[in-house]
Amino acid sequence: MSLVLHTSHDGIHTIxxxxxxxxxxxxxxxxxELLAALKEVDATLDARAIILTGNGRGxxxxxxxxxxxxxxxxxxxxxxxxxxxxxxxxxxxEQIRASRLPVIGAVNGPAVGGGFGLAISCHIVxxxxxxxxxxxxxxxxxxxxDMGATWFxxxxxxxxxxLSMCLLGERLPAEEAVxxxxxxxxxxxxxxxxxxxxxxxxxxKIPESAFRELxxxxxxxxxxxxxxxxALEADRxxxxxxxxxxxxxxxxxxxxxxxxxx
Length: 262
Fold this sequence. Notes:
- The structure is a single chain.
- Helix 1 packs parallel to helix 3 (77-98), helix 6 (149-157) crosses helix 7 and helix 10 packs antiparallel against helix 11 (226-240).
- The mean pLDDT is 93.
- It contains twelve helices and nine strands.
- The protein has helices at residues 28-42, 68-71, 77-98, 114-120, 137-141, 149-157, 159-168, 174-179, 192-203, 208-221, 226-240, 244-261; strands at 4-9, 12-17, 49-54, 103-107, 110-112, 124-128, 132-134, 172-173, 185-187.
- The chain has a six-stranded mixed β-sheet with strand order 1-2-3-4-6-9, with helices on both faces. It has a three-stranded mixed β-sheet with strand order 5-7-8.
- The chain is α/β, with parallel strands linked by helices.
- The radius of gyration is 20 Å and the shape is globular.
- The protein has two domains: 4-203, 2-enoyl-CoA Hydratase, Chain A, domain 1, CATH 3.90.226.10; 208-261.
């Protein structure tokens, strides 16, 4: 059985974590298949957007703790986990953030531990009403949050909330995640995939060059001064404004204005 399912329709590709019996725990095998699927879609020329979701009752429960018992007895266990994270888990997050396509996370049920980081690495996140987010690493496991959570969270919700979430490990309901600006939208559980498809259809229309430049400029803003960012915006605007999509948009605007004047 494939641990990651992949379907497509009209340029929108849906990638589904498919280990419902483990609540889509992030096993070595599942994460390897996920990385391969993300790369495959990114290389598909007619692909326009990606939806990432989970099969069954939850998005992902994070690390496959059930498989740790036997592995902990192996020599070099910690080094092996670090290698797995370096070579598979981190590349998954980097692949999503650097994708030429907008990635929409459709969070169904729990997004826990590494599943939390995976969810918020998506460019847009929509969640079912029963979904929740949790980081049990520090209080329950004596570990650090991973999958980029320590990078994303301070930028999305600030240091104070990040520290509270990490130290307490409490569940953050989807409704509250919207209120603090962590995710985009909450909808009824039954409507989750329809909502994700509707969002994907909207972002699929965005010119690829504009999405690429937006990603690059936001990344640059993390290190740039205001003056440097203003200069970058001016330079890149000068490039994008020469693209056919801008000329077509101006022509359509002028035609519509002319028609209104008649």
